[in-house]
């Protein structure tokens, strides 16, 4: 199982800005992999590597495939929260809106991921 990590939401955002988006691509891939680790039976899970490839080369499909993958990722996060025993608090509309506010959607997604990691580790009896 992929090691579940708690990351600083603000740190993810700052590293993405400082690296001109490179860290954001790495982070998206790691987040998708973490979602699969928590909820492997979800058929809507997005592969981390395919997510990054489509983010880089989405212009080929006029960004239709990256948009579809974005909504699949958001649905996977909700399903992951349910699989972790949480009430789903992730809101796709908020995450999408935050995309247009200097990429602060990364902070929101990471904060939601941290809730899942805490719940999974608490269920396993591992300190978070």
From TrEMBL:
The DUF4234 domain is annotated at 9-77
- Please name the Pfam families in this protein's record: DUF4234 (PF14018)
What residue intervals traverse the membrane?
Answer: 12-29, 49-71, 83-103
Q: Which UniProt keywords apply?
A: Membrane, Transmembrane, Transmembrane helix
Positions the record marks as coiled coil are none
Q: What is the lineage of its organism?
A: Bacteria, Bacillati, Actinomycetota, Actinomycetes, Glycomycetales
The species this protein was found in? Glycomyces rutgersensis
Name of protein: DUF4234 domain-containing protein
Domain of life (superkingdom): Bacteria
The secretion signal range is: none
